[in-house]
Design brief:
The longest helix is centred in the C-terminal third of the chain and has 25 residues, at 395-419. With 448 residues, this protein is an alpha/beta fold. Helix 7 (140-154) packs across helix 8, helix 9 runs parallel beside helix 17 and helix 13 (329-337) runs parallel beside helix 14. It starts with 6 loop residues before the first helix and ends with a helix. Helix content is 47%, strand content 15%. A seven-stranded mixed beta sheet has the order 9-8-7-6-10-11-12, sandwiched between helices. A five-stranded mixed beta sheet has the order 1-2-4-3-5, sandwiched between helices.
């Protein structure tokens, strides 16, 4: 980097240019930490200032979302859509409705999405969006009015060949349906490829709910196999009980592992003999209950803990599948002390940088989220493909395609790390492989 600005100086410049956005700073730092050997090999990337261009979103949209609650009071929320990079295809990324959403969080998620989407090998760029709206405790009518107001502004910036939102925290099939309904009403077009995560009867993809969780386990299986290890018989701890966590547990058990603990925002349950995943699904997905209800309904010897960390539970494999930065350095050390073999991120950057460094120092296999949880967006891209062709794939075929994508993602990360004498370093492999995909496309288009 002698001819040009050092990566550390560039990182500091990006931080100063984007103040008060710690989550975004974290995402940028994590990627830039991997790029020095790549930039040394490709001076053309430096000459074209590709890092500076990738770190600056193509478009940032902030808008007010006024809506009327059930008491007739006007409420105001703030909406966001960050269209980060379209070098490989239309912007693609979810919408998150949660009080914690702000521009820095959306940029953090959107930046990560660029490289995650690139790793799938599918023609999709990176973006993210959402609102600081909390759907918890809201009536169906309030959620409908909010979604309609949100889409009344967002519709002018999206389209099947422009920007294709999906769901995320707080945005499920109900919200996607309401958003699409408003888009259809305003535009007078049945353009169901404009959103993904839809219900099956109007253009949704079979396997979409399962895709992120299943995909993370497929990546885990490939990662273990590449290091002459097997998933069968291993004890697995999974944080969270949302779609990602539940279907990761389901697939892990199907492949012969034993899930010994899972959690929600109140606490966690632990059964050394293995949890009944179907009961967890019944409580959390069907009844919308709390995980504390599990022990009294199970036939095993499950215990519920309302305090402490789920990462204190001894396991062979840890899968953080809840939210960003949920697993810190102390948690990592607890897992290491308990001889954890592998950690795979099901959520978006759930491990802090300090935790990731601890796993690296301890030689623990680590699958970063931009690679391991790419199954969800891969299936969303397949949903776009089905919508464009007016097709509907079977569940089995969809899952076969998902498994193939995850196999190829793993191979790309593994081979790239090996190429740079970083064998087994999946953080480096994912960052370098994803970056090169985007950078090469940007070079082909010139300075735009």
């Amino acid at each position: 980097m002698s001819k040009h600005q050092s990566l550390d100086a560039l990182r500091q410049q990006i931080i100063e240019r984007n103040p008060n956005e710690p989550e975004f700073h974290q995402a940028v730092t994590e990627v830039l930490n991997s790029l020095e050997p790549v930039m040394a090999d490709h001076p053309e990337y430096q000459d074209a200032k590709l890092i500076e261009r990738i770190c600056e979103p193509e478009r940032q949209i902030l808008f007010r979302v006024p809506w009327v609650d059930d008491q007739g009071e006007v409420q105001i929320n703030r909406g966001f859509r960050v269209e980060f990079n379209s070098a490989l295809g239309p912007f693609k990324g979810g919408l998150r409705f949660h009080p914690s959403v702000n521009l820095g969080v959306v940029k953090f998620l959107g930046f990560e999405q660029i490289f995650k989407n690139a790793l799938t090998g599918l023609p999709i760029g990176g973006g993210k969006g959402g609102a600081d709206f909390d759907p918890k405790g809201k009536s169906d009518g309030e959620i409908m009015r909010f979604c309609q107001s949100f889409m009344t502004e967002l519709y002018r910036y999206i389209g099947a060949d422009t920007d294709v939102p999906a769901g995320d925290i707080g945005v499920g099939q109900r919200e996607i349906g309401l958003l699409f309904g408003q888009y259809k009403r305003i535009t007078n077009r049945y353009e169901n490829g404009v959103v993904t995560g839809k219900q099956l009867q109007w253009g949704g993809a079979r396997g979409r709910q399962e895709a992120t969780g299943y995909g993370a386990v497929y990546f885990l299986q490939e990662m273990l196999g590449a290091h002459r290890k097997k998933l069968k018989g291993k004890k697995v701890v999974v944080s969270g009980t949302g779609n990602v966590a539940v279907f990761a547990m389901e697939k892990a058990v199907e492949l012969g592992a034993k899930v010994v603990a899972c959690s929600d925002s109140d606490g966690y349950v632990h059964d050394a003999n293995g949890l009944d995943v179907e009961l967890v699904k019944q409580i959390k997905q069907v009844e919308k209950g709390r995980i504390r209800d599990y022990p009294k309904r199970s036939k095993g010897k499950a215990e519920y803990q309302s305090d402490g960390s789920i990462w204190q539970v001894a396991c062979d494999v840890a899968m953080p599948c809840a939210t960003q930065n949920e697993l810190g350095e102390d948690d990592a050390q607890a897992l290491i002390d308990n001889k954890v073999m592998a950690v795979v991120e099901g959520a978006n950057m759930p491990c802090t940088p300090e935790a990731i460094q601890a796993f690296s120092d301890a030689k623990v296999l680590f699958g970063p989220g931009k690679a391991a949880n790419a199954g969800g967006v891969a299936m969303s891209a397949m949903e776009m493909q089905q919508n464009a062709a007016r097709e509907s794939w079977s569940f089995d075929y969809s899952i076969e395609q998902l498994q193939q994508v995850m196999r190829e993602i793993h191979q790309s990360c593994f081979d790239t790390a090996k190429q740079y004498d970083r064998k087994g370093d999946y953080v480096f492999g994912a960052n370098a492989a994803g970056f090169r995909q985007v950078a090469d496309a940007m070079l082909a288009f010139g300075v735009i």
